[in-house]
Amino acid sequence: PDVIIEAQFDDNDAEHGQDHLQDMLTDDIKKLSLDTGEKGKAAGVTGVHRTKQDDGPKVNDPRLLPDEFLQRTAKVVYILEKKHSRAATGFIKLLADRNSELFKRCAMFSPVDHRVPRVYVPLADCPPDFVSKPEAYSQMLFICRIVDWKEDSNFASGQLCKSLGQAGEIEPESEGILMEYGVDFSDFSPEVLECLPQNLPWVISPGELAKRRDLR
């Protein structure tokens, strides 16, 4: 059977260069060949015969398995850039376990986007009558921003930013999408408005139209 020789390339190997690593691998292969030959001779002298069932290699070390039988795994070691705004639109509801201490302090925020985890939000951020009348807010859209996610918790922790309005209406839904993607939709400042033409109504001059491509 094919034999895979695995070697570690550390700082000492780097000092000796690639030739040193190649020589080390060559020595290991020679030793393995000698060991295999000696075992074969010993088996012939003692008259031990291997059955057909024993011919296949018994691999206990997963490192000796072919690549097609292995599932590659990885570990996140560092976050270069946070792409998500940590804000999401969704609904709030009471926790299922009414007898727990967490029920008295937090509510559950369920994002509309299922790629975002569910979030514990403080009851202090919720409307004052939410605990007594949770059904009144079952179709109310809220914006929540994730602030933390502890390793021993199944859910993230966050804060309610604002209430958007009834789900299904165009204005609340649009505002929620803009906030999720971090789009600034606030009013333009006076400095920006001063850059616009002040003499209204403003039209493009014929000379400007002549050197532009009309895409209207």
From TrEMBL:
Ranges of Basic and acidic residues composition bias in the record: 51-61
Keyword Metal-binding on entry: yes
Short name of one Pfam family: OB_Dis3
Record GO terms (molecular function): 3'-5'-RNA exonuclease activity; metal ion binding; poly(U) RNA binding
Primary site of residence: cytoplasm
Highest taxon of the lineage: Eukaryota
Residue intervals of the CSD2 domain: 107-182
GO cellular component: P-body
GO term, biological process aspect, one: mRNA catabolic process
UniProt entry keywords in alphabetical sequence: Cytoplasm, Exonuclease, Hydrolase, Magnesium, Metal-binding, Nuclease, RNA-binding
Compartments (UniProt record): Cytoplasm
Region entry Disordered, spans: 41-61
Annotated protein name in UniProt: DI3L2 exonuclease
Gene (name only): Dis3l2_0
